[in-house]
Amino acid sequence: MSTLTQRKVPGKTENASPAVVSTDPPENKPEDRSAKFKTHPPQLKSHKVFVRIILAGCVFALVYFTSNKEKTSTLAGYKEDIPLREHKLICSADSFTEAEFEKHPKCISACKRFVTDNLMNENEISQLQELARKIFHNHDESSEIYHINSNSIALDDVTKSIHDTIKSIQPKIIENIAQRFEISHNLLYLTSPTYFSKITNVTTEYSESMHRHHYDKEIQKNVHYSVVIFLSNYKRNFHGGRFIFVEFEKKKKKNHIVDPKAGRVVVYSAGGENTHVLENILNGNLVSLTLSFTCEHEETTER
Ligand SMILES: *[C@@H]1O[C@H](CO)[C@@H](O)[C@H](O)[C@H]1NC(C)=O
């Protein structure tokens, strides 16, 4: 743009405009050059400049409008059966603070997200679904959340079986995170928020917050890794409700969609690189279990 504006300045056009000079072969003598210039009538020149300005404007408009468009791709479709699908990411500045890096050099390494349909077996899925049914049995309409604090005393059979189930699935989840993030499994601890949720089209404060762009560390700063186990099926048990990772690159927005599916597990580092949003539910229930893991031993809810 700057060369174009320079050319509009009267008198300067005849002189060394960089684009014109560069087209001259180096062996050209100065006399030849001036002779060549004199053959161009001035009207043609201003016409050329005008065309170039218009062209530059068009290119700018094209770049501007296409870059504002959001792109959408499917990370995990509901018809797919995915052994493992992984996105390696550049950690955002807030993912792990310098102090955290120093404190937990072996627990904090890369940033990524992955989806797997193979981690949970049929038996575990139906066990978790059964628990969710018991927890949410008498409130069918609105969105609900049930926090699990394995520290608390199990007062009844349901609470006890929730604790037992979480305890039984925990080792392999931790093992899986450790393997994918290339860290040691004995450095990870279950922390809060860990909860069952049922999200419907009747929103609550909690479900509203899920429908806004956020990343987990922004809500709970001790969380380093997040795990979501979906327990109901997109298009079968509910419509809407897709889990969407959103990346912003300058002005470009890119969506990576995960269709929830019973037994599907999504694991991601909790920083800004994994900003996400839950699409509004149109009808039905999206049931899931969310587990949070930390490298901070003091923050564990597991004793
Ligand atoms: C909310 O979902 C229920 C079924 O889950 C459906 O009958 C109802 O029409 C939905 N309401 C709206 C406003 O979409």
Automatic annotation (TrEMBL):
Compositionally biased tracts (Basic and acidic residues): 26-35
Annotated region (Disordered), positions in chain: 1-39
GO cellular component: membrane
Transmembrane residue ranges: 49-66
Keywords: Membrane, Transmembrane, Transmembrane helix
Family matches, as PANTHER family: 2-OXOGLUTARATE AND IRON-DEPENDENT OXYGENASE DOMAIN-CONTAINING PROTEIN 3, PROLYL HYDROXYLASE-RELATED
Name listed for the protein in its UniProt record: Prolyl 4-hydroxylase alpha subunit domain-containing protein
Annotated source species: Chironomus riparius
Lineage: Eukaryota, Metazoa, Ecdysozoa, Arthropoda, Hexapoda
